[in-house]
Amino acid sequence: MLDSVLEKNRSYLQNTDPEVFNALVGEEKRQRFGIELIPSENFAFPEVLALLGSAFTNKYSEGYPGKRYYGGQDYTDIIEDLARERAKKIFRGEHANVQPLSGSAMNQAIYHAYLDPGDTVLGMELSHGGHLTHGAPVSHMGKIYNFLRYKTIINKGGIIDWDEVEDLTLRYKPKILLCGHSSYPKDLDYTKFKSIADKVGALTMADVSHIGGWIATNHLNNPLDAGFDFMTTTTHKSMRGPRGGLILSKKEHAKKIDSSIFPGLQGGPHMNQVAATALTMKKVATSEFNNYALMVLKNAKKLAEELLAEGFDLITGGTENHLIVIDTVKSLGLDGKKAEELLDEYGITTNKQVIPDDPNPPLRPSGIRLGTPAVTTRGMEEEDMKIIAKWISKILKEKENLKSLTGLKNDIKNFSDKFVLPGI
Ligand SMILES: Cc1ncc(COP(=O)(O)O)c(C=O)c1O
Fold first, then answer.
1. Residue 227 — pLDDT band, cuts 50, 70, 90?
2. d(C-alpha 185, C-alpha 270), whole Å
3. What architecture does CATH give domain 55-284?
4. Which residue has the least CA distance to atom 13 on ligand 1?
5. For residue 211, how far is its CA from the centre of ligand 1 (angstroms)?
6. Which residues on neighbouring strands pair with residue 308, listed in sequence order?
7. Residue 324 C-alpha to ligand 1 middle, in angstroms?
8. Residue of 99, 182, 235 with the most ligand 1 atoms within 8 Å of its CB, for mutation
């Protein structure tokens, strides 16, 4: 049934807009024949793809279940209630808002709800693993609020500099103490953050966008268990859901968060995305997903071990989650831009990445970032990680003599093609 609906839509598309159709087919081939190692990417559940293209796309639903500004909400209320209840259950949250259109919007909604312009937030330094939406100077949020930053201690395996976190908190009394990351390969001690925040009455916020799926399955620590006020996560990375965001919070924050999303920041929620989020929350609660999450983490460990054995220098010395950052300058005298391009040439997709206190600029940084969620979705296991690590090593080490790698592109293509690509 699902297949036939998708097939019908494809043939419409092919007839009406061959240019877009051909680009779609090109992208599908790129995904099928390549090895996808960007840690924030994944392959959505086929049911998610179907719901995103469903009748829910057509509906305007400003407001919340039972309190909408448009009629005809019988079915949208059902899916939003399902999404909220399921999210609360899997993350042990008291309140859930499933309407943020993206990860950026979910973080902004919290800042706008609790901060006045000029107020202070303490978050993780971008080059040490933090995210743009945690107050990078180039972001709008960085211009509106006063973001201060803590770092990790590079020569102590990249642990968080707790003395600095505490010192900055006591000195500047931030309104929000923020943790979470997009390129930090370690789990976090949320209890420690909470105890420091409590010394000055700061609110606690964890942006777990990269690791939501591993928290939902209890393989990594849950900030809500440590008494955090807010936890935000994207739904499209580790959880294989639609592109979007989720906010979990204590009940006392429910009203402020909901009105900060609507009418504060957004108009009509994307109900096709909300329907797909409801489905995703159901999938994430299954034992099948739990096995998947465990495999992602095992694969990342194995890939890190193999890269270390090949002589690569890894930020923090390895990984405790799904992502790995290679210092390509230290390992091979190669900047991250060049490393990303070389691997891309062979169908291995990674992304250039700044490393802690990087002396190089963001478009030509000193490292690359890799992760295992997408390859694990395709069914790859630890033995496959060994093969991939060897290929990465070969390509980057042979940078001056790529002719010696004749045939490798085809080997990678044939290897990838052996694994299923869900929904495509
Ligand atoms: C930690 C973190 N927060 C927020 C975001 C922003 O999400 P989006 O791209 O959906 O706006 C990302 C995405 O990369 C992220 O990694």
1. very high
2. 32
3. 3-Layer(aba) Sandwich (3.40)
4. 103
5. 11
6. none
7. 17
8. 182
